[in-house]
């Protein structure tokens, strides 16, 4: 045991730069012993709370519970980010066991009767404590986490809740693993004559991928996001686009990694858990602690956007169909595998603009300087690479982040390129949250942003598309929310906010991509140093509204599908028919046999967005409204940036987000700014009804 404790890095303090993780010392034999010890230590800390003979109060119960589990957080804050960004086969195998261990641990806390009685006693007597807003939020969040997780249940209901919770944990883990395991199994080898229309950057990358796979002279395409998206946008061969689309949307439907039965069980298990807690559906249960608060408010937003965007979407599709028909000389029916291809050509023809022509001006290192520079100009932050901080993969870099006075703000890790050990997509996560310890010391965060950008080749650096730059800005917005946190409590720090508020900082950042004043700060040709030409910038800006209605309807489709799965009142028998019916109100293309969204919909079946995907659109209303203030005052206006930083980015979940937003905005938001930005509404049109972001909290 002594030897194990000496060798396991999680059993000792870390004498590293800023207390960062010593990744070189961590291996797969350490996870489970460290988690077991972390749970044991946490249970002892909880027992100390329940054994306390003093009357329960805010400090000895609520704050004490908030401080529980530091050792466990240390290992989980390493394990889960790596599970997504650089997982080994052993980690994937262990994840099922770990997920069950953590489910049992969290359930044991929620169903700890003496602990629940102390929490309830403090909550029932809350008016006597005269708490500040942040303390009040911690108390409310703590109470709700118990009340909404089965603490009020007794007898058989309590046992059933515990069983279902454990089952749900295993199912969501299985869903995520199936998505991750099936994706790399698709390898599409093409010959040179199949590549018509593809940009040379994509061809070079495919040649390199084939060479690395031992098949030099061929061209390897996978279903990884940047590869798939570029192929669908540029490949002239319609039959190959259809093949790729059917492979991509046919994943996890059949075979070893099928998620059909898994997702049906997930939805039904969530429904049964909600029913045990007295809620009609899972959405009614899940939405309590959100800005929306209930399914009716979600559907109100989705339907208002559907009504506003449907006419524009039909007009867009009619124009696109006419363009494709005229170009080919024969009547065209736009299929889902045609949209990206023809939309790209139509956009280029309409605005004399080609996104691919922008790649040379978006070299990754220049973009990094531009994205970091945005935070420097708005919030006074500075970023300096620190080679003394260990990283978990050679592609990863670590940066010291400091403020305008040179004070340490936090650590930022960047991880940009695809690999077999990494999940698809892009995300921000924390290796360590921000909090203030019991002695008043501010413990600063360690934040990571992970993406899957186009990789460099032998003769070209990584050159990004505008979409990839937008993705970078998005995830960087999340990282700023984490880095700038100044709260007292870890559970309310940074991105630990209401789910339909968390996307505001990230989506707000995306607005800068269409601002010439910002692009001029970094967009230059990677070979000549030439500034990005006016023609390209004007094309990017004027074409920004192109396809806005289609994009909105596609997001609404995800939102309606999510809400359908989580407002079910009975088990779903036929997942295919269920999905088809769910998306009918926002259907763009007729359903194609063998293609579905649900089996790969990781956001809602293995991520944290169950009954919450609508939050992207909810936050989009807020981000457009917020950026309209910057547009009015100046996109780099110091006073506006200071207000956004202090009222939104620094505050985390320390107060109700409606109050934080109102404090920044000076009033209520509505959907007008979004409709105007997307070209759906003219600025002089009558104002729309404000969205209600101040719903009374109800237990």
Question: Please, could you describe this protein's structure?
Answer:
The chain is mainly alpha-helical. The chain has helices at residues 2-7, 31-50, 58-66, 70-85, 89-110, 113-124, 133-147, 155-182, 200-212, 225-234, 238-249, 260-276, 282-286, 295-328, 339-351, 364-379, 466-483, 504-510, 516-519, 534-542, 548-566, 575-582, 602-605, 615-633, 638-649, 657-665, 672-677, and strands spanning 188-190, 219-221, 382-385, 397-402, 408-415, 427-432, 435-436, 442-443, 446-450. The strands form three sheets. The protein has a five-stranded mixed sheet with strand order 3-4-5-9-6. The chain has a two-stranded antiparallel sheet with strand order 1-2. Strands 7-8 form a two-stranded antiparallel sheet. Strand 4 and strand 5 (408-415) form a beta hairpin. The chain is globular and about 85 Å long. Residues 694-699 have low confidence and may be disordered.
Q: Please give the largest β-sheet.
A: 5 strands, mixed
Q: In whole angstroms, how far apart are the ends?
A: 47 Å
Share of β-strand residues: 5-15%
Number of contiguous helices = 27
Q: Which stretches of 5+ consecutive residues score pLDDT under 50?
A: 694-699
Percent helix, as a range, is 40-55%
Structural class: mainly alpha
What is the strand arrangement across the widest sheet?
3-4-5-9-6
Mean pLDDT across all amino acids: 94
Radius of gyration: 25 Å
Q: Which shape, going by the Cα principal axes? A: globular
Strands, count: 9
């Amino acid at each position: 045991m002594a030897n194990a404790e000496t060798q396991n890095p999680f059993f000792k303090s870390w004498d590293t730069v800023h207390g960062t993780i010593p990744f070189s010392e961590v291996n797969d034999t350490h996870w489970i012993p460290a988690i077991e010890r972390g749970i044991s230590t946490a249970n002892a800390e909880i027992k100390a709370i329940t054994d306390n003979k003093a009357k329960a109060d805010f400090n000895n119960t609520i704050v004490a519970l908030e401080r529980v589990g530091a050792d466990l957080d240390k290992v989980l804050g390493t394990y889960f980010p790596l599970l997504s960004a650089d997982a080994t086969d052993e980690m994937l195998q262990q994840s099922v066991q770990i997920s069950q261990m953590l489910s049992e641990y969290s359930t044991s806390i929620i169903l700890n009767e003496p602990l629940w009685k102390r929490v309830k006693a403090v909550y029932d007597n809350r008016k006597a404590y005269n708490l500040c807003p942040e303390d009040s939020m911690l108390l409310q969040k703590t109470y709700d986490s118990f009340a909404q997780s089965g603490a009020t249940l007794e007898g058989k209901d309590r046992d059933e809740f515990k069983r279902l919770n454990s089952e749900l944990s295993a199912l969501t883990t299985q869903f995520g693993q199936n998505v991750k395991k099936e994706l790399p199994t698709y390898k599409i080898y093409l010959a040179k004559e199949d590549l018509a229309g593809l940009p040379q950057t994509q061809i070079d990358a495919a040649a390199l991928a084939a060479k690395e796979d031992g098949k030099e002279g061929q061209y390897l395409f996978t279903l990884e996001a940047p590869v798939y998206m570029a192929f669908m946008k540029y490949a002239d061969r319609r039959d190959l686009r259809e093949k790729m689309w059917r492979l991509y949307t046919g994943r996890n439907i059949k075979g070893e990694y099928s998620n059909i039965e898994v997702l049906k069980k997930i939805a039904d298990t969530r429904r049964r858990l909600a029913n045990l807690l007295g809620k009609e559906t899972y959405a009614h249960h899940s939405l309590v602690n959100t800005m929306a608060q209930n399914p009716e408010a979600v559907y109100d937003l989705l339907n208002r956007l559907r009504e506003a965007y449907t006419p524009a979407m039909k007009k867009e599709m009619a124009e696109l169909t006419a363009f494709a028909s005229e170009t080919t000389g024969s009547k065209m029916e736009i299929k889902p595998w045609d949209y990206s291809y023809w939309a790209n050509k139509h956009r280029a023809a309409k605005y004399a603009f080609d996104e691919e022509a922008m790649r040379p001006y978006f070299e990754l290192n220049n973009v990094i300087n531009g994205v970091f520079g945005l935070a420097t100009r708005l919030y006074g932050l500075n970023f300096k690479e620190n080679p003394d901080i260990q990283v978990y993969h050679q592609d990863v870099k670590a940066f010291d982040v400091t403020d305008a006075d040179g004070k340490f703000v936090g650590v930022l890790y960047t991880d940009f390129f695809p690999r077999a050990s990494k999940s698809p997509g892009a995300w921000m996560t924390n290796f360590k949250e921000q909090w203030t310890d019991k002695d008043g010391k501010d413990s600063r965060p360690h934040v990571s942003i992970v993406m899957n950008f186009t990789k460099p080749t032998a003769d070209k650096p990584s050159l990004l598309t505008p979409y990839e730059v937008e993705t970078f800005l998005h995830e960087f917005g999340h990282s700023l929310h984490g880095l700038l946190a100044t709260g007292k409590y870890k559970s309310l720090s940074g991105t630990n906010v209401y789910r339909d508020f968390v996307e505001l900082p990230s989506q707000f950042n995306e607005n800068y991509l269409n601002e010439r004043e910002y692009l001029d700060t970094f967009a230059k040709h990677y070979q000549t140093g030439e500034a990005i030409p006016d023609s390209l910038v004007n094309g990017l800006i004027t074409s920004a509204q192109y396809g806005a209605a289609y994009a909105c309807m596609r997001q609404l489709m995800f939102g309606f599908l999510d809400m359908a799965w989580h407002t079910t009142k009975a088990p779903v028998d036929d997942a295919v028919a269920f999905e088809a019916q769910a998306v009918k109100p926002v259907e763009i293309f007729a359903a194609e046999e063998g293609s579905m969204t649900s089996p790969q919909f990781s956001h809602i079946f293995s991520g944290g967005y169950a009954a919450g995907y609508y939050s992207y659109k909810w936050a989009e209303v807020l981000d457009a409204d917020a950026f309209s203030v910057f547009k009015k005052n100046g996109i780099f206006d110091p006073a506006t940036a200071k207000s956004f930083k202090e009222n939104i980015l620094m505050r985390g979940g320390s107060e109700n987000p409606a109050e934080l937003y109102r404090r920044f905005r000076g009033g209520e938001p509505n959907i007008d700014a979004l409709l105007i930005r997307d070209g759906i509404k003219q600025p002089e049109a009558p104002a729309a009804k404000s969205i209600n972001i101040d719903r009374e909290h109800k237990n």
